[in-house]
Amino acid sequence: MRLRHVWADGGYLGKLVTWTLETLGWTLEIIKRSDRAKGFQVLPRRWVVERSLAWLTRSRRLSRDYEGRCHTSASWCYLANIRLMLRRLDPSVEPL
């Protein structure tokens, strides 16, 4: 299974849309707020990213950028996700 469609914030509008289509073959859909909206507004698909980041930052190690290398940070993200999935499989297990 390959990535084909990506959702992005309005800040990524511009040349990135054509670049992702030409270079990677992905369609990039920009999710923008209405110009008339005031205050907080739930945007489609954006909550998925916000929720996932909230799950990751529950791990103390990922709440700040402690790591000096990118692959170390990626490893900690994998470990946090593994812990999350294991807790979902057996909720009775206490966290480490």
Automatic annotation (TrEMBL):
GO molecular-function terms, A-Z: DNA binding; transposase activity
GO biological process: DNA transposition
Pfam hit, one: DDE_Tnp_1
Source superkingdom: Bacteria
Transposase IS4-like domain mapped to chain residues: 3-79
Protein name: Mobile element protein
